[in-house]
Amino acid sequence: MEAYPAQNRLSPFQFMNSLSSKLRPPLLLRASTTAAATFKPFSAAPLTLTTASPPPAPEDNSVVVPSEPPIRRNSRKKNANNAVSQAQLRGNWLDSLSCPFPPENGKEILSSDPNGVANAASEWVIGIDPDVSGAVALLKPDESAQVFDSPHLKVLIGGRARKRLDAKSIVQLLRSFDAPMGTTAYLEQSIPYPKDGKQGWWSGGFGYGLWIGVLVASGFSVVPVPSLVWKNEFKLSGSKFSKDDSRELASAIFPSMTSLLKRKKDHGRAEALLIAAYGKGLKLDSNCSSLDDKQSPVISRL
């Protein structure tokens, strides 16, 4: 085999095809004065990085507690404004539930009063348990009491017959009282409980709203009362007390109503009487702590 001359031999870098020249970088910067004048690469000012030194450790190696934020000077003023705002909102709410009609002289003198003595509306009190199984109690200035079951009827709801309040009969019942314009009606505030279910929530809200609308439109002033408020006044709050205790206490306060409070289902009448007694200012005497001793409670006026 004939050997190639040394000058004709190809170096290892020459075994590339003709495309190798096309793969060269399109731009080659050379260290020349021409390239330096033609191309001026962007350069930013040099950055100086400094490392922050850690805070000095306390000499006694104690834990560093961050300082509390400064107390704003207007915090008390803000709280006071919130309190005023809440009181104003409650006042607006009660004002919207007050009698919308001007007082009439004829309404303040009862036709049944032979002496023609004018009775102030504040001497008349109405207590209402707004449930469909509740009742309406009326206390007159002569301390006499009356109680009536809430008028209701059965309506078809979802294929089932359910009890609902009868608005027309309620209006007729209130007119039969012949109470002065602006008489205060204490209405137990409806509060839904999880165990009541959707139907219970709807029925409770429906009855509560219906009573408010009918009372205000009939010329009464409504005062919502949470059940816990009037029950605390008569020491009936707590799991150890039942609706039977309400019937017992109402019978003790209003002996003339005892015959109407004998059945268990008469608890609505008892609660309406107690709500009216709360609005009237009747309360348990301080010497009577509860009903556990089965003694007749002593009632006094506020």
Task: Please tell me about this protein's structure.
By secondary structure, the chain is α/β, with parallel strands linked by helices. The protein is built from 8 helices and 9 strands. A hairpin with a 6-residue loop joins strand 1 and strand 2 (135-139). Helix 4 crosses helix 5. Residues 27-40, 47-51, 62-66, 106-119 and 288-296 have low confidence and may be disordered.
Helical residue percent band: 25-40%
Rg value: 43 Å
> Structural class given helices, strands, pairing?
alpha/beta
- Major beta sheet, strand line-up: 3-2-1-6-7
Q: Poorly predicted ranges (pLDDT <50, ≥5 residues)?
A: 27-40, 47-51, 62-66, 106-119, 288-296
Strand content: 5-15%
Major β-sheet annotation: 5 strands, mixed
What is the gist of this entry?
With 302 residues, the chain is an alpha/beta fold. It has eight helices and nine strands. Strand 1 and strand 2 form a beta hairpin.
